[in-house]
Specification:
The complex is a heterodimer. By secondary structure, chain A is mostly helical. Chain A has three domains: about 10-35, no CATH class; about 40-285, Up-down Bundle (Cytochrome Bc1 Complex, Chain C), CATH 1.20.810; about 440-545, no CATH class. Chain A has helices spanning about 5-25, 25-35, 45-65, 90-100, 105-130, 140-165, 170-180, 190-195, 205-235, 255-280, 285-290, 310-315, 330-360, 375-395, 395-405, 410-445, 470-475, 505-515, 525-535, 535-545; strands at about 35, 75, 85-90, 250-255, 320-325, 325-330, 450-455, 460-465. In chain A, the strands form four sheets. Chain A has a two-stranded antiparallel sheet with strand order 1-4. In chain A, strand 7 and strand 8 form a beta hairpin. In chain A, helix 5 (about 105-130) packs antiparallel against helix 6. The longest helix of chain A has about 40 residues, at about 410-445. The relative contact order of chain A is 0.09. Helix content of chain B is about 30%, strand content about 15%. Chain B has helices at about 55-85, 90-120, 140-155, 160-175, 235-240, 260; strands at about 5, 20, 30, 125-130, 205, 225-230, 245-250, 270, 285, 290-295, 300, 310, 325, 330-335. In chain B, helix 1 runs antiparallel to helix 2. Classes of the chains: A mainly alpha, B alpha+beta. The structure holds protoporphyrin IX containing FE (HEM) and FE2/S2 (inorganic) cluster. FE2/S2 (inorganic) cluster (FES) binds near residues 275, 277, 296, 299 and 314 of chain B.
């Protein structure tokens, strides 16, 4: 260390020496401190998910000091007067206890619930960002798979947590789950009996759910989050094309001190916002619902937003059921409860591999796509969003019916049709919009930016002066990469289809590739245009003021 | 800096043009390679104005203000914890509000201060770094394969089939055998789902109060109550299947086959309250239209016509419980339901 020691030097020098003598890590540490993080608002979305998970861990641990995961019958005698003397499960009683007899308990419950919602919403939006910018492409496919797995686990854990307090709504949610479980072909009743330890509701489910909720699933999530972040760190964050931000170089602010301070502030921000919501916006007021009783129901149950698409699917499904040979196949349950979520999650999981198969694009991508530059993908993504959105909105079909005074029959049929037509329209519109935006970009590169200055030429003609886009902008606009086209069916000299283009799979692949690459707009670097259109005049025009 | 709106055409010194979605031009420093020796030239601040000590001082004050706010928030949090007890609704709401607001202030203070610090106080710096290709060299990869090959050969695993098969025979059961442990997670379903707690002669009692029911308790057409089997008031498993709704209708409104008509008493008809869709209690009754509505997914049943489904995802009518009157005039069940109640299942047939 230098003799002229600043306080940080002394501090870091001391510990640093201690650690380095044992692990020899100075090299690694400098590299890490200097690691660059590109800056874009959309890159914060993953951090929302990450930090709300931390909030969940902290608040959840606090709750677990008081929560009693037991279905044992007790008579309530806590502070909440309206339920004194009422019989209920110990789980419900302890949740009332957390809410009304532990200072800060209600706040922790509300923060826990709000951060669960923000967690799942954060994951979803982050996933959309990754999808629409093509950040899942090679080399990041496996991180996408980890991400989708975490999404499924988060979803499951939110559902399980919702069932823990054993209030009327959570019990109804479990009853619905059990009703769906027994509808699974062949194994349904066994699944239900093994899950509940016998008949519904039994006394085993709450303790079982509890251990899944606080140990198993958070443990797996923690491991996956670690892997997710380490992989991201190692492979480097993707970034948008700019002058210095290319496939070979990354631009950003170094980890220390910039990213540390930024992300630390952001963590505080997420915690602060969830605290604010916990303070001001009531969520899941279980004391109003009362304890679970299988004979009772409330008309205005409201579940967390992320169950919405399943609920919508269940509501839209026609009453299809077939019985034969002593067995019953209930499609009105199997399709919305198994087929639709199964399909959604499978397509999500496999998408990077499907797209890679269709485009044959095995290049290493450091640069992100702007959504417009991958019109088919963007269209497909929008179709998915609309499909999900229609299902989600359909969960409120009764609300629409009563609010706008239309028959339930009509809203249901509206959503049924929208479910099939909506995604098609979304695909076509999104693709057209993307292509339009691409053309606009191309025009900017070809003709420059309109300056609003009108000039009269010697010939008497009026023209608008255009300016060359800055190099930064040019780099951004030119960031589009060609999508490879697979030329099929390829034929060898004798006119026989080449081996790789024969067979159903190859034909399917070729067809999909054609679909994917149709309407491709070629990217032509700006120098080209200026060469063609006479750079001199362009310059001259743009320097006239 | 944000990518949202940026200068595009500054080349000619005219008014800058903005194009949404393109980055702002910045002066960037290079940091070539990331091995130790090759640090780039010493970083210089991006622009003079960013170095203006007055501005930095002002920004520093703003940051300090936010951090101070956070401190106040933390003090407020402890104060609110001590000052506001919890117990009733109103007290708890007050405590919750102040604990939450002070906590939010404590976090948001640091958040805002920190962000302001990064943006206005820290020397702005943006670096460029080269990205090394991810894949290793061909030689490196070949080394791995070779080493692995050699290791396998050394283990003689491939050459010794007995060893190989024995290992497999040992490991596979190791993975599968523990599955038997899951057998005792629950009993087998058997025919449990086909039966409910109702038996011949069992009295109907009102859910909640436990009173016995006489036909005269449902005097007016349109009356509706929820009943459960006597003796099972606290048995949640029983209630989950045996809960029944009693509906009184004018006899002329009831359109039932004769055998089911015999299961009613004085226009009082008993239907399972467990929705045949996925099992919510189908709790809403509209007396004008004789419709039973399940609030969960809006399955709608016609109470006057054997609870046939008239709308929604439910696939079958609500089963009817045969009821009669005992010697003391109380309503009783004549038997269990004649078919399984609630949602369909594979073995239902
Ligand atoms: C993936 C992350 C998690 C999600 C999405 C999640 C979600 C939820 C939800 C929605 C509830 C219902 C809360 C209510 O309104 O009462 C809940 C309850 C609960 N959670 Fe979590 N949670 C997560 C992680 C955790 C962790 C890590 C712990 C403990 C270490 C935990 C402990 C609890 C406890 C004890 C309850 C019951 C207490 C109560 O209902 O007030 N949770 N969770
Ligand atoms: S449970 Fe009754 S409609 Fe779904």
């Amino acid at each position: 260390m230098t003799p002229r020691t600043s306080p940080t030097r002394r501090l870091i020098g001391g510990t640093g020496t201690y650690i380095d003598e044992r692990f020899g890590s100075a090299n690694f540490v400098t590299r890490s401190l200097r690691k660059l993080f590109p800056d874009h608002w959309a890159f914060l979305l993953g951090e929302i998910a990450l930090y709300s998970f931390v909030v969940l861990l902290l608040t959840g641990t606090f709750l677990s000091f008081f929560f009693e995961p037991s279905a044992e019958h007790v008579t309530y005698n806590g502070s909440y007067e309206n339920l004194q003397g009422v019989e209920m499960s110990a789980a419900y009683a302890s949740t009332l206890h957390i809410s009304f007899d532990v200072r800060g308990g209600l706040l922790m419950r509300q923060i826990h619930h709000w951060s669960a919602i923000i967690f799942i919403a954060g994951i979803m939006v982050h996933m959309l960002r990754v999808f629409f910018t093509g950040a899942f492409r090679k080399p990041r496919e496996l991180n996408w798979v980890i991400g989708v797995t975490m999404f499924i686990l988060a979803f499951a854990n939110g559902f399980i947590g919702y069932g823990l307090p054993d209030d009327l709504l959570s019990g109804i949610g479990l009853k619905i789950t059990q009703g769906m479980a027994i509808g699974i072909p062949v194994v349904g009743t066994y699944v239900s009996f093994f899950l509940f330890g016998g008949e519904f509701p039994g006394t085993l489910l709450i303790p079982r759910f509890y251990i899944l909720h606080v140990l198993l699933i958070p443990g797996i999530l923690l491991a996956l989050i670690t892997a997710h972040v380490v992989i991201m760190w190692y492979q480097k964050h993707g970034n948008f094309a700019r002058k210095r931000s290319t496939e070979k170089t990354v631009v950003g602010a170094p980890f220390y001190p910039y990213f540390v301070a930024k992300t630390g502030s952001f963590f505080m921000f997420v915690f602060g916002v969830t605290a604010l919501m916990g303070a001001l916006v009531q969520i899941n007021p279980i004391w109003l619902y009362g304890p679970y009783n299988p004979a009772q129901i409330t008309a205005d149950s409201q579940s967390d937003f992320y169950f919405g698409f399943l609920e919508g699917a269940v509501r839209l499904m026609p009453a299809w059921e077939y019985s034969a040979l002593g067995h019953t196949l209930t499609l009105s349950i199997v399709i919305p409860a198994l087929v639709i979520p199964g399909l959604l999650f499978t397509v999500l999981l496999l998408y990077p591999f499907i797209e890679q198969w269709v485009t044959g694009d095995k290049r290493h991508h450091q640069l992100l796509d702007r959504p417009r530059n991958a019109p088919t993908r963007t269209g497909f993504g929008m179709a998915g969003v609309v499909f999900y959105g229609v299902l989600w909105a359909a969960a409120g079909n009764d609300l629409f019916a009563t609010t706008f005074d239309i028959p339930l029959f009509a809203t249901t049929w509206f959503f049924r049709i929208a479910l099939f037509v909506g995604p098609v329209i979304a695909f076509v519109v999104a693709k057209r919009v993307c292509l339009g935006l691409q053309r606009r970009d191309r025009e900017l590169l070809e003709h420059g930016v309109e300056s609003g200055i009108i000039k009269r030429l010697p010939s008497g003609e009026f023209i608008e002066v255009t300016e060359t886009p800055s190099e930064e902008a040019q780099a951004h606009l030119e960031g589009k990469k060609e999508i490879p086209q697979i030329a099929l069916p390829a034929r060898d000299d004798g006119g026989v289809p080449a081996p790789h283009s024969r067979g159903v799979r190859a034909k399917l692949r070729a067809a999909l590739n054609r679909l994917y690459t149709r309407d491709e707009i070629e990217v032509v670097p700006a120098e080209h245009h200026r060469g063609e259109h006479g750079e001199a005049e362009h310059r001259e025009l743009s320097s006239t003021e | 800096m944000s990518d949202k709106d940026t200068d595009v055409g500054r080349s000619s010194g005219g008014r800058p043009r903005r194009v949404i979605g393109t980055p702002r031009p910045t002066e960037t420093q290079y940091l070539l390679g990331d091995d130790e020796g090759a640090a780039g030239p010493p970083a210089t601040p991006r622009a003079e104005r960013d170095e203006d000590p007055k501005k930095i001082k002002k920004a520093e004050r703003v940051v300090a203000f936010f951090f101070g706010l956070s401190l106040l928030g933390s003090i407020g949090f402890v104060a609110a914890y001590i000052a506001f007890p919890v117990s009733g609704m109103a007290e708890t709401a007050l405590s919750n509000r102040w604990l939450g607001l002070s906590m939010a202030a404590a976090f948001l203070g640091v958040a805002c201060g920190g962000t302001y610090w990064v943006r206005r106080v820290m020397a702005p710096r943006e670096l460029v770094e080269e990205i090394h290709p991810m894949p290793s060299s061909v030689e490196e990869r070949r080394d791995v394969v070779e080493y692995f090959d050699q290791g396998t050969a050394d283990s003689r695993f491939l050459r010794r089939p007995l060893l190989r098969r024995a290992l497999l025979a040992a490991l596979v059961p190791l993975g599968i055998a523990p599955l038997v442990l899951f057998r005792d997670l629950g009993p087998l379903p058997g025919t449990v789902l086909r039966h409910t707690a109702w038996k011949k002669g069992m009295r109907l009692v009102v859910e909640g109060s436990g009173r016995h029911v006489r036909a005269s308790d449902l005097a007016w057409p349109g009356s509706y109550i929820t009943v459960i089997p006597e003796g099972f008031e606290h048995d949640l498993e029983a209630l989950a299947k045996a809960t029944v709704m009693l509906i009184k209708m004018r006899p002329e409104d009831l359109h039932l086959p004769p055998d089911k008509m015999a299961w009613t008493v004085d226009g009082i008809i008993a239907y399972s309250k467990i929705c045949t869709h996925v099992g919510c209690p189908a709790g809403l009754y509209e007396q004008q239209t004789h419709r039973i509505l399940c609030p969960c997914h809006q399955s709608t049943f016609d109470a006057s016509r054997a609870a046939e489904v008239i709308f929604g995802p439910a696939t079958r009518p609500l089963p009817q419980l045969p009821i009669g009157v005992d010697s003391e005039g109380y309503l009783i069940a004549l038997s269990d339901f004649h078919e399984p109640v609630g949602p369909s299942f594979w073995e239902r047939g």
